[in-house]
Each structure stands twice: as structure tokens, then as C-alpha cells.
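User: Hey, quick favor. My workstation is busy. Could you predict this chain's structure for me?
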Amino acid sequence: MSVTDLTKVPGELRFERQTLRVAVVGAGFMGQVHAEAARRAGANVVAAVSSRPEGAGAAAHAVGADKGYPDVAALLGDAEVDVLHVCTPNASHAPVAAAALAAGVPVICEKPLATGSAEAMALVAAAGDRLAAVPFVYRFHPMVRELRARLAAGEAGVVASVTGGYLQDWLSRPTDDDWRVDPAVGGPSRAFADIGSHWCDLFEFVTGDRIVRLSARTAVVHERARRSGPATEDLAGVHFVTATGTVGTLVVSQVAAGRKNRLHLELSGTEASFGFDQEDPERLWVGRREGGQTLLRDPGTLHPSAARYVRLPAGHAQGYQDCFDAFVADSYRAVRGEETPDGLPTFADGLRAVRITDAVLASAAADGAWEEVPA
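Assistant: No problem, here it is.
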């Protein structure tokens, strides 16, 4: 790992922030998002790996890396890397992350962390005390942190119920295609593992509560040509109960025409209710019996834990890349040993998401029977 510079300045000691050397495995959309966030956090993107050996040069060009490699083994054997970002198709997440951890390299791995709980548990064990993070980046919207702070302060009273969903439309037509529809590449769950995991992580993060039992139904709306096994779900409906007794309902769909990336949740409490919509992340709705109000992202009025993630003045919209940038910046702070950022999602959170996904699939296979979710 590169060494932090110590520079003597008259009258004081000044520490130069360590410039991390990062590699990105997978050069598609997510790889490019990770690389951009890495640069904004002050890192150098020194290497890239394509999903195809012949695509090394193209991968380096796509993410702006200094050099491309044909595979992960070649990269780890040649390049000096401080953090490795795993942005490959789902089924390869676990082996790529495991290889990096075995080489002593901290990892940021896209979700799902693995396609089954056993693999995910092995990764948690392999990580040890190294950084091992999963980009549940919606945690880093300032208004999500504001919601979390208000719930922790007891403003909601008793949170009796929660409703919400994660809706997309990019697979709403039978001709729509992507590697994710092939279970050999995308894993045994598609819609829920891909986006339902984000919703469950966000709910548990803001409430501090845990889903303990659930009943699920899934559906395949379109049979698709590109698959090598049983079709994965286009949508899922889930009823659940939490450790504190909150009752929840969740709908996840990738065939909801007109909805591009709508993660929304509404928590109904005895004193106040709260609503957040990821497609409108600058606002948080608060409802009380005396009336409702909309809170705006304004650093002058936010809880300190939320104001920390404000990058622009009020009225200048922040969005998806901003919260991704904040996640990566916090991950790099942990790598450099500067601090332990509050709310940084780790491989343990990735394992948690895999366990919920496994319970959803088991319940759906049993005609909606109630399933326990392991802690």
C-alpha cells in the first residue's frame, strides 16, 4: 500500500492524504460509475479487467485505467493495488472478491455479494479486518440519513407498518434482454437480488430493525430466449414481519412500464409517518395528524449526520452519482485508517441481503409459505 507523505510546514506538521491505487474488474455501466467515484475521491485508477480476456484494452479505456489485464490473476500478480472494485456479472462476484482478499487487497464488491449464503459467509470470514464493502449506496442520500436520525430520536412513535417498492421497466417487453436474465450468469434470483436487496437494506438501515419472517410470491411475466436454466423472476411481492412487530409489504418489479428506478418506502408511525422516494431524493415527507410537511435538503436545517453528506448548496440537486461518490469516499477513508465511517455497508450487510433473498426464493417455491430469515 502506498505511504502517506509527511511534509514539514513552518510551524506545523501537514499530512498529505494517501493516494490510493485502485483497480476495477468489469467495465460496463457499474464499472464506469465506480471508476468515476474513485477519481472524485482522489484515487488513481491504475488497472482494469474485462469480462473477456481479449477486451483488456477496451476495459481500460472504458473506465479510464492506466492498464488493462486479461484476468484477475494477471492483475493481482502484476499491479500494486490498494482497493479492488468488483463490478462483474453476479455469478463471478464471489470468486473475484475471494481472490482479491486472498492477495490481501481490500474489496468493494457489487451486490449481490454472492448467489448463495454459503459463499457470502465464506467472504465475510475471508475479509477479516480488511475493508470489504458492498455499495448499498442509497444509504448515502442526505435525506435518508435525516430519516434515520429522526426515527432514532423517536419522532415516529411506534412504527406500526411500512409499505414500499422498487420498480423499473427496462425488462417490461418480451424482446428486452440482458445477461441478468441468464441464471448461469445472473444467479438464481434476478429482480429481488438485484433491486429488492437495496430496498431491504435501506429499510433495515433507517429503522435499525430486522426482517425476521416473510411470505413471498414471484412471477415470470416474459419467457426469454437467453437463459440456461429455470427462468428468474420479473417481479416479487413480499409480506414480512420485523423483530419489533412492524408489518411490511414490498413489491419489486423490473416490468413496471414508466418506472425507471423508483425505490420508495413509507413508514407509518403512531406519532409521525415518513416517506422517501429515490427518484425525488431531495425531499422527505413527514406526516402528522395536524398535517404534513415536506423537508428539503438544506444543510442549515438537517441533522449533522445528514448534513455531512451534503455536497452542494440547497436548491442544487444531488443525485445517484453523488451518493455513490460519498460511499466510495467513506470506503477509502476506512482503507486509509482515517476513521470508521458510520453506516458504511460491509460484507456482513451483503450477507444479510443474500439471506433475505434466499428466504424469498424458498417462500415463493413453497407457494408463499412463511420463512424465517436467519439473523
